[in-house]
Amino acid sequence: MCRLVLACAVFAAWVCGFLGPASCGVYYNDRPVIGVLAQENLESDHDAKGSSYIAASYVKFLESAGARVVPIRINETEEEYRKLFYSINGLLLPGGDVDIEASQFTRVAKIFYELALKANDAADYFPIWGTCQGFQQLTVLTSNKNLLTLTDTKSVALPLNFGPGAQNSRMFKNIPKDLLHSLSSENITSNFHSWSLSIQNFTRNAKIKRFYKILTTNTDGKKEFVSTMEAYRYPFYAVQWHPEKSPFEWIDKPGMVHAMSAIRASFYTASFFVSEAMKSQHRFPTQADEEKALIYNYIPVFKGVNSIFIQNYYFD
């Protein structure tokens, strides 16, 4: 009996430490539902159906940490998005290749971003995560301009250069020391982007600088750019690298890493973001509404081992 009580106390302490003070209070959501934003189909995708897609690796990334996923389609009304916002517990903006100033992806991302700002200002916790293109989209939404610059980072794995703000950041303050060492010393973060937010442009833009804290940087040998950041006042997080690729994408090309340390980094970041979503009190109106919205209603298409995305979900 004593051992059971001790074990429960240890678990409670871990939950409180990892999830933050909100998890130690009255509310703790152990059934989080996170929205993943779809984007316009690629012109080069000959298997594409409908008008938009979500790479399955982003869905698996969230599911690996105990979340369920709702696809957010790009052809719905603002009122429908508002209703969905108050039903889900967080938003993931995935990587891809669309216009981050004029696409339908951008239109919908802006709606959710502005709803999230207002909700968090009203103590209604709602986290956002951006990966690669999602990182870039967040910079545009925050600064109201495109601050990106070209870098030679199309297919390369890099170690992270941790800045002074990382140690006390929400994202990294509880990271295991051995994983922190791996991330800072091994080439395990996958980069597949041609555009980056340079340190110079970050520093020169007052809106971005006031809003986000730099956690890590990288360089292509010529330009130093932001690779991980989190907002000061909001639960918004962004990585220019791809933590979802190591366990869930299998194309054989430079930059793809399947080392155990890379897979641990993927699960750590997924677990962190899902823990943030667990602080959200949003709920679907009914269980039937929730079940109808979940990604389980859709079947992913196998793209082949030579595709950058091994599976895609497609939507009308």
How does this structure look, described?
The chain has about 325 residues and is an alpha/beta fold. The chain has 2 domains: about 1-30; about 30-315, Class I glutamine amidotransferase (GATase) domain (Rossmann fold), CATH 3.40.50. About 35% of the residues lie in helices and about 20% in strands. The protein contains 11 helices and 14 strands. The chain has helices at about 1-20, 55-65, 80-85, 105-120, 135-145, 175-185, 200-205, 205-210, 245-250, 260-275, 285-295; strands spanning about 35, 40, 50-55, 70, 90-95, 130, 150-160, 160, 190-195, 210-220, 225-230, 235-240, 300, 310-315. The chain has an 8-stranded mixed sheet, with helices on both faces. The radius of gyration is 19 Å and the shape is globular. The relative contact order is 0.19. Residues about 1-15 and about 20-25 have low confidence and may be disordered.
Major sheet attributes? 8 strands, mixed
Overall domain count? 2
CA-CA gap between termini: 55 Å
CATH class of the largest domain: Alpha Beta
CATH topology of the largest domain: Rossmann fold
Shape label: globular
The helix-strand sequence is HEEEHEHEHEHEEHEHHEEEHHHEE
Helix content bin: 25-40%
Poorly predicted ranges (pLDDT <50, ≥5 residues)? Answer: 1-15, 19-23
Structural class: alpha/beta
Radius of gyration: 19 Å
Second rung of CATH, namely the architecture of the largest domain: 3-Layer(aba) Sandwich
